[in-house]
């Protein structure tokens, strides 16, 4: 289901990184909206703005959202990863609830980055329904097998009424969906983007 219908950047001076975004750029939202482009082009910044419903965006909402509202889920792979969230968590033996807590610290200490990302990304997607899901580079650390599982999970969640906004560099994900290129300032098929970028 389409919950956010259109997004337009109306201002670009709210905070760090927003100066790289193009004022006046707008795009029609689909079920899966991949935000692509080189490092530093504003992908993460745009996702943060969407998640905050920033006054610097003009977001056109579907009628059902205007009347009832909509839940959203925002996950930033870099900032929300428990392995980097609390640098003290590996050495905390007190059992106190510090950062993600003692149990979480032990769990993440003995699991790989990819295993943690698999749990944090693929787990919640199994239950997601009728919401807006905003993910910043969710493929980070995922194996090729799990990247394809992620694509399948996104498609299944779309069938349950979810709409996605995903910043990604992941070749298999880009190949499967249309993209909003912040390098070319237009929408195109993922395959066309790959062809243009020399893939």
Describe this structure in words.
The chain has 8 helices and 9 strands. By secondary structure, it is of the alpha/beta class. The strands form 2 sheets. The protein has a 6-stranded mixed beta sheet, sandwiched between helices. A 3-stranded antiparallel beta sheet has the order 2-1-4. About 8% of the residues have low confidence.
Features:
single chain, 199 residues, alpha/beta, Rossmann fold, six-stranded mixed sheet, three-stranded antiparallel sheet, 8 helices, globular
Give the gist of this structure.
By secondary structure, the protein is an alpha/beta fold.
Q: Unreliable runs, pLDDT <50, ≥5 residues?
A: 87-94, 96-103
> Which outline best applies?
globular
> Based on DSSP secondary structure assignment, what is the total number of beta strands?
9
Give the neighbour order of strands across the main sheet: 5-6-7-3-8-9
Helix content: 25-40%
Q: How much beta, percentage-wise?
A: 15-25%
Write the element-wise H/E pattern from the N-terminal end onward.
EEEHEHEHHHEHEHEEH
Count of individual domains? 1
> Whole-number radius of gyration?
18 Å
Distance between the termini: 31 Å
The CATH architecture classification is 3-Layer(aba) Sandwich
- Helix tally equals 8
Q: Find the structural class using helix and strand composition.
A: alpha/beta
Return the average pLDDT rounded to an integer: 84
Give the topology.
Layout: E1 4-9, E2 26-28, E3 32-36, H1 43-51, E4 57-61, H2 63-68, E5 71-76, H3 82-85, H4 102-109, H5 113-125, E6 131-136, H6 144-159, E7 163-167, H7 171-176, E8 178-181, E9 186-189, H8 190-196
Helix pairs in contact: 5-6
